[in-house]
Amino acid sequence: MTRLIEPVIADLQSEYGCAIRGGHTWRSLWIRLSGYAAFWKVIGLHATARAWPLTREWAAADDRALGRTLAFSCVASSIATMLLMYPPLSQTVRYAEDGRFYLRATVDQVGWLLFFVIPQAIPITVPIGVAIGIVCGLRGRAATLRTRRSIVTISVVCCAVMLVTLAWIVPAANQAFREIVAGRPQLPKGPNEMTLGELRTSGPRFLYHQRWALSFATLALGPFAFGLSASMRGRFRSIVIGVMASLAYYSLVYFFFRVSVANALTGWPPPFIAAWTPNIMFILVTLLLMRVRVHI
Predict the structure, then answer these.
(1) Rounded distance, CA 283 to CA 291, Å?
(2) Which stretches of the chain are DSSP H helices?
(3) 15 φ, ψ (degrees, to nearest 5)
(4) Which end of the chain is more exposed for a tag (fewer CB within 10 A), N or C?
(5) Would 278 be classed as within a structural domain?
C-alpha cells in the first residue's frame, strides 16, 4: 500500500507546487483534480485486486457451502425468471384465424419488452432462488454460524433491493410495457403501475401492504430453508420440500390476494393481516423446525 499511495501523493505535491510557484493557477487546479482522480483510481484497483482472493476464500469456507448456495441461488433465480417472463410476453402475440401469429410490437420494441418484463419477476424469483440455493448448497446439513451470518447478510441486501424494485422500478416497467403493447403513450395507471407512495395515498390497501410483505419474503423463506436443511434427513428430500415450500409461499400470497379482493366490501381479513400472513406462517414453521431440532 505504501508503494502505491506515497508515489501518487508525492507526484501530486511536486507538480502542484511547481504550477503554483510558476503562477499557473488553472494548471495547478487541473493538476490537483487529476491527482485526486489518480489517487482514487489506485485505491480502487488495489481494493479490487485484494477483494478477489478474499471473496474466493469467503466462498470456499465451510466446505464451499456458501459458494454452492450462491451458485444454486443464481441458477434457480434465473430459471424462475425466464419462466415468469412468458405470461406477460404472451400478450404481445396475436393469433389470426388462419393460424398465423403476429407481434403487437415492432422488432425494435421486442428488446424493450424483454427489458421491461424482467423487474416484475425479480420479487418472486429472488426469494425462491435463495431458499432453493440454501437447501441445495447445505446438502441437508446444518449451517455453521459463519455461513448463516453471511447468507442472512445477503438476504437483507436482497430485501433492500426488492423493496426498491417493488416501490419504483416494477411500476415504471409495467407502465412502459403496457404502453408499448397498446401502441400509445400515457395510459391511465392501474394498481400494478402505481408506486408505493401512490398506493399508500390512493391505491388498494392490500397491494400496498403486500409490496412491503414481498420485500421481506427472503427473510421468511431463508431461515425456513436453514431449519429445513438442519431438520430433514437426506439432501434430496430437503431440496424437494424446499422447492414445494417456495411454491406454497406464493400460493398463499395469491390465495390471500383473492380473499382480499372477494371480501373488499366487508373488510375482513384486514389488508395488513392478509398481506403479512404468508410471512408469519413461514416464520412460525421455522420456529417449530428449530424447536424440533433442539429436542432431537
Answers:
(1) 12
(2) 2-21, 25-90, 107-117, 122-138, 145-164, 170-182, 196-202, 205-215, 217-231, 235-262, 271-295
(3) -65, -40
(4) C
(5) yes
| Domain of 200, in residue numbers | 62-295
- Predicted pLDDT at 70: 83
Q: Of 93-102, 119-128, 199-208, which range is least confident?
A: 93-102
In the numeric block, which cell numbers belong to residue 42? 489506485
Q: Which residue has the higher pLDDT, 131 or 228?
A: 131
- CB of 30 closer than 8 Å to CB of 18: no
Which residue matches cell numbers 412460525? 284
Decide if 69 is inside a domain: yes
- pTM for the predicted model, two decimal places: 0.74
The secondary structure element, H or E, covering residue 94 is strand 93-95
Report the pLDDT averaged over residues 280-294: 80
Tell whether 43 is covered by a domain. no
